[in-house]
Specification:
The protein is mainly α. The chain has one domain. It has 15 helices and no strands. α4 packs across α9, α4 crosses α12 and α7 runs antiparallel to α8. InterPro entries: Acyl_transf_3_dom, Acyltransferase_3.
Length: 405
């Protein structure tokens, strides 16, 4: 198996899309969900999510293959496979920046911050908490249920994982590798959510200079408090700017009209191809500019010649959070633990490739189930809580009005 061969990625994507298409045929609930969801305002972005989340899986599958053969955890030497990870994450950050800045621009002072906060909590945690529990149980199972840390230290580890950090659990080395360390991106997402109202006060609401200064200080304080582990943290955060730029781009009718043309589709694909083949890191100015150009065209509604429209791709977009969050553990279980149980050598390409194929199908199936039975109920629970809080607030308001009379 040659880790530079692009056919591996093409075959994996084809298998994932076929698996999603089969699920659509076999599970009426999925079809009904897509029909109920309908065509969103940003349908092209919904399709893009599916490609991105699965791209991170392909990226980590190549890293795992290299690790099995060399014992070294490192980026793939091939630009395509390196960028399937970093480039996909950069575009995910752009999607976040775009969607929420667009809401600020649309709603202005009417933006519902309570709904925003509750929706983010109930979007991230319903799936993350079971995964976190699975990691802790796995660690203790591998260690024979022996407690190697004092209870206070274990409690600190639990708290750190709850905030998306990944310290070693109970002295199990490189615990984060059980999930391919994917949760680092969630910390950046949370920082963006926390900084969003402050950034809105600075750039959209535009109060007094004292208010602006206090908000800038608040953003800096948040930036310091999170305690990033990455030396390129500013470059990671810069990718959100591509999404924010797209929120302004779509408010220019002439730009949107051009972005939906065939020419724009070609430009977008060329920008993506150059970014994914000429660079091996996404968080630098040239690849970020190329990815930003690609993204503003997609955000404007260009389906890239229909590549973002199929129902199977839309479903992969729906389950993208599950795919992203769970793929590391599925990959670890299938290509690192299962071969030990089967007594086969996963360093053999003819063992690894079939395992990877099974892992691909299993990932789409598991992600579909966790979306339907964990993510979707979690989102609904958040909406229910929000409605109850609003009803309580309205009741208190009516009661206060009666007392005032």
């Amino acid at each position: 198996m040659n880790e530079t061969n692009p056919l591996i990625a093409l075959a994996a994507y084809a298998l994932a899309i076929a698996s999603a298409a089969l699920l659509l045929r076999a599970v009426p609930t999925i079809t009904r969900h897509l029909q109920h969801a309908g065509e969103s305002r940003f349908a092209s972005i919904d399709g893009l999510r599916g490609y991105l989340a699965f791209g991170v899986f392909v990226h980590h599958s190549i890293i795992t293959w290299i690790f099995l053969r060399t014992g070294v955890i490192d980026f793939p030497p091939n630009n395509l496979y390196a960028m399937l990870g970093q480039g996909s994450v950069a575009l995910f950050f752009m999607i976040t920046g775009f969607l929420f800045w667009d809401r600020l621009l649309t709603h202005g002072h009417r933006h519902d911050w309570l709904a925003f906060g509750i929706s983010r909590v109930f979007r991230l945690y319903p799936l993350y908490l079971p995964l976190m529990l699975l990691v802790f149980v796995t660690v203790f199972h591998l260690q024979g249920w022996e407690l190697k840390e004092p209870g206070s230290q274990l409690a600190r580890q639990v708290l750190a994982w709850l905030t998306f950090d990944r310290p070693d659990i109970n002295r199990y080395p490189q615990t984060g590798m059980l999930i391919s360390n994917v949760t680092w991106t969630l910390a950046y997402e949370v920082f963006f959510y926390l900084a969003l109202p402050l950034a809105g006060m600075v750039f959209i609401y535009r109060g007094s200079w004292r208010q602006v200064l206090l908000c800038l200080v608040g953003i800096y304080a948040l930036y310091q408090a999170v305690g990033w582990e990455h030396s390129l943290k500013k470059h990671f955060l810069a990718s959100f700017l591509g999404g924010i730029a797209a929120a302004y781009w779509i408010r220019r009718p002439q730009l949107v009209a051009w972005s939906r043309t065939r020419t724009a589709g070609i430009v977008a694909l060329l920008a993506l191809a150059i970014a994914f083949t000429a660079f091996n890191r996404a968080f630098k100015a040239p690849p970020l500019l190329l990815l930003g150009l690609f993204f503003v065209i997609v955000a404007s509604g260009n389906s890239l010649f229909g590549a973002l429209k199929p129902r199977s791709i839309r479903w992969m977009g729906e389950i993208s959070y599950s795919t992203y969050l769970l793929h590391g553990f599925v990959l670890w279980a299938m290509v690192q633990r299962l071969p030990l149980w089967l007594q086969v050598d996963a360093r053999d390409a003819w063992v690894y490739l079939p395992l990877l194929a099974v892992c691909t199908c299993l990932l789409i199936l598991i992600s579909s189930l966790t979306f339907l039975y964990i993510e979707r109920p979690g989102i609904a629970l958040g909406k229910t809580l929000l409605n109850r809080l609003r009803q309580r607030k309205e009741s208190q308001k009516r009661l206060a009005q009666k007392v005032a009379r």
